[in-house]
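Run folding on both entries below.
>entry_1
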Amino acid sequence: MHSSTLLASGPHLRKLLLAGLLIAFGTVAIDMATALKMGPTIVAGDGAQYVDLAHSLATGRGYTLEIGPWPDKPNVGRAPLWPALLAIPVWLFGAADPRLVAQCTGAVLHGVSALLLVLLTFRLTGRFWAAVGAGAMLAIYLPETGLVVRGYSEVAYVAAMLAGVLLFIEDGLLPYLGAFLAGAAVLARPNYAILPFLLMALVLLSRNRKTGRLFPAAATLLFCLPTAFWVARNHAVSGYFPLLSATEGETLYGGNNAVVASQPELWGYWLAPNEIPGEPSKLDLAREKTEAQVNAYYHDKGVRYVREHLAAMPRMLVGKLVRGFIPMSWTRDPFAIVVACFRFCRYSLFLLTFRFWPGRNGVYDAVVATMFLLTLGTTLVYYGSFRLTYCIEPFLFPYIAAGIAHAFWPGTATSPDTP
C-alpha cells in the first residue's frame, strides 16, 4: 500500500497537476462537443427540474420548482447540491439558455472529477502513469458525458465524493474537510445518506493513523452536518421529519407496482405512478395534498404493494439487479448502445485487472465496498437504473489502472517514468 501523502510527493506533484489539468481540459472539450451536437433540448425530466431550481435561486425566487405541481411552495423533492452549484453560473450568465449553462457546468465538473481521480490514483498507488491512465479513462467515459449533457445531478455527486475521499486519506486537518465534502455529496444523491457507517469503517481501517477519540466523532459530525441541515430545512417548510427528499415515495411506488411486475419491457425498472392504471394524476393529488403528503401517500402505496405481493418479489428483484448492473442497452438509441458498451468494457477490465494491484489501500477498499453495498440496497428496494449504479463506477478506475500497471510494469517507484 502506498502510504506517503499527496503533498509529500515533492517534484512529482507539479508534473502530476499539469497532466491532470490537460486531462481535465480534454474532458471539458469532449463533453462540450457532445452537448453542442445534441443541443440543450436534451435537458429534460430530472435535468430540467434541476435547471429550473437553479434558475429560481439565481433570480431570487428561492428554492421553488416553477415547472412542478407546487410552483409557489418551497421544494422538498430535489436534493440541493447540484441546483445550488448551478445557480452561480446561471446568475452570472443570465442571458444564456440555462440548459446550456447546465451542460457547460456539468462538463467542468466532469473535468474536475478527472483531475481529482488523477490525484487520488497517484495517492493510492504512487504511479504517475497509472494516475494519468485512471484520469484519462474517466475523461473519455461516455456514460458520464451522457449525464452531463442531460443535466443530471450525478456529476456533482462524483466530483464532491472524489474530493472528499482524496482529502480523507490525507494527513493533518484535511480529513475533516474530506468528511464534510463527502457529506455534502449526499445532497446530490440522497440514497447515500447512511454513509456515516462508511466513515466509521474508514476510521477503523485506518490502522496507521492515531485517530484517538476526537477524530471519529468530529469526522462523523462533519459528515452528517449537510444532511442534518437539509432535513431540518425540509421539516421547517413541510412539517415532516425526517424528510431528505420527497421523491422517495414516488420512486418506491414507481419501482414496485403491478405494471412493472407484469410488463417485460419494464421488468426491474420504474414507471411514474401517474401511469399506473387507476391512480390519480400527480396534479390531481397536488390540489389536495402538499408535496410531502404526496410523498407519504406514494410511499405507503409502495410498501403496501410489496407486503401484498411477496411471491412476486424474487422475480422483480432479479429484474432490478439485471437492469441496474448488467451493462446492456434497453432501447435502440445509438447513444444508449454506445454507453452500454463503455460500461461493459469498464466492468470487464475491473474484473480482469483489480487482482493484480498488490497491497491495496484498506481505507479505499472500504469506500468502494460500502458504496457498492449501498448501491445494491438502493437498487433492490427501488429499481434498477444506470444512474443509480453509475455513482460507484468512477471509483473503479484506480483498480483498473493500478492493476494494469502492476501486471505489466512491476515495481513501486513514484517516478513519472514509472507506469
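>entry_2
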Amino acid sequence: MIRRSRRWHGPMAVIAALAIVTMAAGAADRFVHRRSGLQPWRVDRVVATPDELVASISDRGLVREERIAWDRIAAVDPASDGTLEVGVSDGLAKGDRIWRGIRRLQRGDARLARTAFEDAWELGPRIPGELAAATLEGLVRAGIALGDTDGTLAEALVLGELAMAGRRSDRFDGAAFSGSVVDEATGLVPDAPPVGDDIDPIALRRRLRDTPILSDTSEARRDLWVRLVERAGPPDLAERGLDEGTRLLLDLTRLDAEDPQVRTAARRRVLDRIDEMPAWRIAWIRWFAGSAAIAFAGDDREAVLAGVLDLINVLALEDAAPLTIRRAALHLAADALARIDRDDDAAVLRAILAFEHPARSGTESAP
C-alpha cells in the first residue's frame, strides 16, 4: 500500500503543480492598456476613483501602486470572474469621451469636440479634480472655436476658479493649443465674457450650482457673473479682500447701478489707465460702459453717442477683442444710432456686421 502510494505520488504532484501554476498565470494575466503607445500594466487588482484608476502591480515579488487618469486608459481587462470592479466601466466611458474631445479639438472639429466634452460632463460626478478641469476647459475651448460661448459661461467661470485654486489640467499644454485660456491675473477667461445673444440666466445659475464652491470668493464671483448677464446692477459687497478678477466684475456691475453717482464713479474707475490694460480687458470695460450708457441715456442723444463711442473703441481693437463682444458691439451700436435717427451710420455698421460675422459652424470628421 505504501509503495503504491509512492508510485503515483510523483505524477499526481506534477499535475497538481501545473494546475496551480496555470491558475496563477491566468489570474496574473490581467492588463491595464494605456494610450499613446505606452506598455500595458499587468495588474493584480484595480480600484476606481472619480478621476483615475488605482492599480496594484506585482513586480519581482514587490507590490507597487500606480495611478492613471481615465482619459489615458484605452481598456481594462476584466477580473478572473469576467467582471469589472465598481466604477471602472463608468470611468472608462468618461475618459474615452475626454480623450476623443481633445483629439477632435486638435484637428479642428470643435462641434464634435463639444459634444464629446458634454457627454463626459454628464457622466460626472462633477468633482473639481483634474478630469473636471480638462472637461471644463474642453467645453470652453470648443465654444470659443465655434464663436458660441453663450452655453459655456458657467464652465468658463468655474474653470477660472479651478485655475486660481491651483487645480488645472495639463491636457491642453503644448504646441497643439495656443496657451492657457484663463488670464492668470484675474482668473477670468478673456474670450468667454458674460455677454451673448441667447443666455438663460436661470439655466446659468443652475449650472453654477452643479459645481461645489471652490474658494471664499467663488460665491461672490458667481453672483456677480449672473448679475452682469442680467444687467441687474451691483450687490452690497465690500471690496476689501477681493481678488483682482472679482473686483473687476464688481466694478462692471456698478456701471449698471440705478444711482447715477455710483455709475459715474464706476466709469471713472474702470477707465483709469485703460490704455495700459490688455486688449481683452479694454473690450470688456468698453462694452459694459458703452451698453450701460446707452441703456440709461433715455432721449439724450449726446449720452447715446457717448455710449456708441465706447462700442466703437471695441471695434477698433479688431481681432484682439473677444468675438462675442465685437459682435454684440456692432449690433448695439447700429441699433443705438438708428434710435437717434442716424440711419446712414447704422446701415454702415450693419453692413460691417453682415460682412464680418464669423461662421459659427465647425468642421466635422470621423470620431
